[in-house]
Specification:
Blueprint lengths: L7 E9 H9 L18 E5 L2 H13 L6 E9 L3 E3 L3 H18 L5 E2 L11 E2 H25 L9 E6 L16 E6 L5 E5 L7 H4 L1
Parallel strand pairs: 4-7
Antiparallel strand pairs: 1-2, 1-3, 2-8, 3-9, 5-6, 7-8
Helix pairs in contact: 3-4
C-alpha cells in the first residue's frame, strides 16, 4: 500500500547525440544494458532528478573516446513494481536471494575497484549485479511454476530497480556526505518509460565538469 507503484520519476540518461535522437524520435527504442558490472542489474539506467550527473557521465565517456558527441535525454518513468533498495523489505529480500545463490553456486563474483578511482568505491559491481540478476531469474522461475500449477501468476516481475549510492570524496573534512552521492533507477520494463524528452534547461557546467 505504501509503495512506489504510482510514483512518476524524472530520470536523465547520458548518451551520444545520435542515441539521444533515436530515443526521442523512435517510441520503441530502448537501450537494455547487460554489463556484468552494472550496479542494479540489467536494464536502462537513469540518474534520478540529476541532469548534471547525466551530463558529467556523458562528458567522461566522450573524453574516453567512447561516444562522439555527449548528450542527455530525459525520461518520465513510472516506478511500477519497483524493487526499491531504499525500502528495507527489498534489501532483506535480496539477502535471501544472495544466500540461495551462494548455497547453489558458491561465491563466483566480487565487487571490484578500478585503478582510476582514488576513492575505492568498488565501481565494478559484479557481485551486486549477479545477485540481482539471480533474483530476477528465480522470480521468473516461480512465475512459470505458478502458471503450470495454478493457471495464473502470483509473483510479479519487477519493472524497475532503484537505489541510492554514496560515492566520491567527502563534501568537507569529516563529513559523511559524499560529493557524488546519487540515486539510480534501472528500468527493466520498457513500457514503464512513458516519454523521452530533450531537457530545456542546460546542465550547470561548473557542476557537471
Amino acid at each position: 500500500m505504501y509503495e512506489m507503484k504510482n510514483q512518476l520519476i524524472l530520470g536523465f540518461h547520458g548518451c551520444d547525440e545520435e542515441t539521444c535522437q533515436k530515443l526521442i524520435n523512435s517510441p520503441k527504442e530502448f537501450h537494455f544494458n547487460k554489463n556484468p558490472y552494472d550496479w542494479l542489474g540489467h536494464g536502462m539506467y537513469f540518474w534520478e532528478n540529476d541532469l548534471n550527473r547525466a551530463w558529467k557521465w556523458a562528458l567522461e565517456r566522450h573524453r574516453q573516446g567512447k561516444i562522439k558527441q555527449p548528450a542527455v535525454v530525459g525520461a518520465y518513468i513510472a516506478a511500477g513494481n519497483c524493487c526499491d533498495f531504499l525500502n528495507i523489505k527489498h534489501t532483506k529480500r535480496l539477502v535471501g536471494y544472495y544466500e540461495e545463490m551462494i548455497a547453489e553456486h558458491g561465491i563466483m563474483f566480487y565487487n571490484e575497484d578500478v585503478k582510476s578511482d582514488p576513492y575505492k568505491d568498488k565501481l565494478l559491481r559484479k557481485l551486486d549485479c549477479a545477485v540481482i540478476e539471480y533474483m530476477h531469474k528465480r522470480m521468473s522461475m516461480s512465475r512459470e511454476l505458478e502458471r503450470q500449477k495454478l493457471g495464473f501468476e502470483l509473483t510479479a516481475s519487477f519493472d524497475t530497480v532503484r537505489n541510492a549510492f554514496l560515492e566520491g570524496a567527502s563534501a568537507f573534512p569529516g563529513s559523511a556526505i559524499k560529493l557524488k552521492t546519487h540515486i539510480q533507477i534501472c528500468v527493466r520494463n520498457p513500457h514503464n518509460i512513458l516519454a523521452f524528452f530533450r531537457p530545456r534547461l542546460k546542465p550547470a557546467l561548473d557542476l557537471a565538469a
